[in-house]
Amino acid sequence: MGPRVPHPEEAASPGAALLPFSWAGNGAPGAGIGIGFYGNSETSDGVSQLSSALLHANHTLSTIDDVVLETVERLGEAVKTELTTLEEVLSVRMELVAATRGARRQAEAAAQYLQGLAFWQGVSLSPVQVAEDVTFVEEYRWLAYVLLLLLVLLVCLFTLLGLAKQSKWLVVVMTAMSLLVLVLSWGSVGLEAATAVGLSDFCSNPDTYVLNLTQEETGLSSDILSYYFLCNQAVSNPFQQRLTLSQRALASIHSQLQGLEREAIPQFSAAQKPLLSLEETLNVTERSFHQLVALLHCRSLHKDYGSALRGLCEDALEGLLFLMLFSLLSAGALATTLCSLPRAWALFPPSDDYDDTDDDDPFNPQESKRFVQWQSSI
Amino acid sequence: MGPRVPHPEEAASPGAALLPFSWAGNGAPGAGIGIGFYGNSETSDGVSQLSSALLHANHTLSTIDDVVLETVERLGEAVKTELTTLEEVLSVRMELVAATRGARRQAEAAAQYLQGLAFWQGVSLSPVQVAEDVTFVEEYRWLAYVLLLLLVLLVCLFTLLGLAKQSKWLVVVMTAMSLLVLVLSWGSVGLEAATAVGLSDFCSNPDTYVLNLTQEETGLSSDILSYYFLCNQAVSNPFQQRLTLSQRALASIHSQLQGLEREAIPQFSAAQKPLLSLEETLNVTERSFHQLVALLHCRSLHKDYGSALRGLCEDALEGLLFLMLFSLLSAGALATTLCSLPRAWALFPPSDDYDDTDDDDPFNPQESKRFVQWQSSI
């Protein structure tokens, strides 16, 4: 037997020692990294659902303001131009002037009632700003997790490579990296646990908290806020009264215009144009009014609220728990790796036959020993 | 050198031959299985978004029908009881009877206008049925993929185990299983490609197709369907006319009731009770009317349509592409495994020192050879 032929049991032992590392180093973090990517994507989905619900709610709120503003302006314009022209044209018939004045009063009343419906006007809290802040934080959180996941993946792969190639420097570097990633993993476990506890505390009964917070931030009456946040049969529409009053005012303008059309047009042909224009304005106003009724109803805004809550309390929380599982798995696997790597290193044969080509350092003590052996054999 | 000490290069070769299999057998399908689980969950999310949007749309449609039915019944009841009582009480004053008859006519007209708003009544297509069908198919699809993923995972793990333990029967069984899973993978690639092509074809321009299909299934007018499916400024509300007319009828009932209250109550105290009850009915009807305006507006149903499309064309399609990637990866890895397993088997040493305990079959030809050798050495 030559001195450089190793005993078969000895040659087999690094291969056998590789197996548990291969399982621990590729199995647990492999599953962990998959879980981590899934959790990261779920959290991101949940947060983007939250911010898109906020944007949709903002769109509804700003559309309410726009429609109210537009309708009030349109009614004011009609009062200023067509109704004034009509009054001048019909000035000789007192009862027609009275009907015109009645229509003007009703139009002014309707404009005043509608004005009060733009409840979000002048509120400093902007859902767009909240959505932007949330998206900003989420982008960095997402990126940080992707980097952490890639780091764990790289550490696992290079540790396996180091074990397979039995390269000592790679194993040393990866031991140091594992220590770093272990610290990061434990840190992220702590952060995730704190966030998950806070989030599930919030999610167990969000309505009261969100209602109080929004009331503080916006200064809106609790009637309006509970109508939108609860949106059930028990809470009546706080705009019902105003809506009914403006609806009656619009219907009364309509009947007065119809009366004027019947009475005035046969006698005063100049009254036809402003009357038709007023009817058109009334039709457009009624369409806007119906849109406003639809926008003010709690269904749409409450659905956004529900969707934001679902995003936060279902998807984001679930993703967070998966991220926590990933962090725990990777921390466990890295701790195992850290404990076993020095022992695996001790099992590396002092000189190996299938060494990697990187190790051709002439000042390597093994190489110089071999050189001395080769010289003496000549 | 003893005959049973293998040459070091020979002893090392199975270890070296293991590496590429370990990478191919654990790396590619490992990533593939992660991608597959992710894709399966994304597809499932998308389909559940579709079915929840369908359920929400169904809720809106059935609420419209319910509110219309309830309001029409309430108005009919008021006409039958309170207005008839009022007519009898006021029968001595003809002008008050005329006002009451006017209110009755308006109430009947309002009921008739509102009746026409229940557009989904008598339509045979039920979104709930569609949602249930979709959920049923999706449940089996999800389960089939989870089973396929687990099968691939098990085949990979047992192949690795067979290679590590150098157990021939395990490698043979896993070769047969790999062949089976390879066929399943290629089959699923074909199914996924066909579904993805069909789905992306549908998703490139869904509106026209869905509109035509719904029109065929429901027989509703294209006015109503394009109002809900397009929901932009260009399409006017097909219920606008009816809504405005019923609103005017309700306002006119209100003004007639107010007139009656002023005129009749001082003289006929018996008129007070039915009049107050009518006012209450009118208030409730106006609330229901506002709810109906909100429900009939295209916002809510169009949002459900958009959410169903997003579920199908974003999440489900994305998930499907990920599933296709998984199937391709696993098919590739299994094909590689199938090509290399027989060669790896040939490299197994004819008798191995760290054999597993399962292989203690006395009728094993190697065992009997060893037995003969042992006998001859005695």
UniProtKB/TrEMBL annotation, chains A, B:
Keyword annotations from UniProtKB, A to Z: Cell membrane, Chloride, Chloride channel, Disulfide bond, Glycoprotein, Ion channel, Ion transport, Membrane, Transmembrane, Transmembrane helix, Transport
Taxonomic classification: Eukaryota, Metazoa, Chordata, Craniata, Vertebrata
Keyword Glycoprotein: yes
Localisation per UniProt entry: Cell membrane
Entry keyword annotation includes Acyltransferase: no
Record's subunit section: Homotetramer; disulfide-linked. Homodimer.
InterPro entries per record: Tweety
Gene: Ttyh1
GO molecular function, one term: volume-sensitive chloride channel activity
Name of the protein in question: Protein tweety homolog
Task of the protein: Calcium-independent, swelling-dependent volume-regulated anion channel (VRAC-swell) which plays a pivotal role in the process of regulatory volume decrease (RVD) in the brain through the efflux of anions like chloride and organic osmolytes like glutamate.
Ranges that cross the membrane: 142-163, 170-189
Region (Disordered) residue spans: 356-378
Pfam families reported for this sequence: Tweety (PF04906)
Membrane topology: Multi-pass membrane protein
Domain of life: Eukaryota
Catalytic activity: L-glutamate(out) = L-glutamate(in); chloride(in) = chloride(out)
GO cellular component labels: chloride channel complex; plasma membrane; smooth endoplasmic reticulum membrane
Entry similarity comment: Belongs to the tweety family.
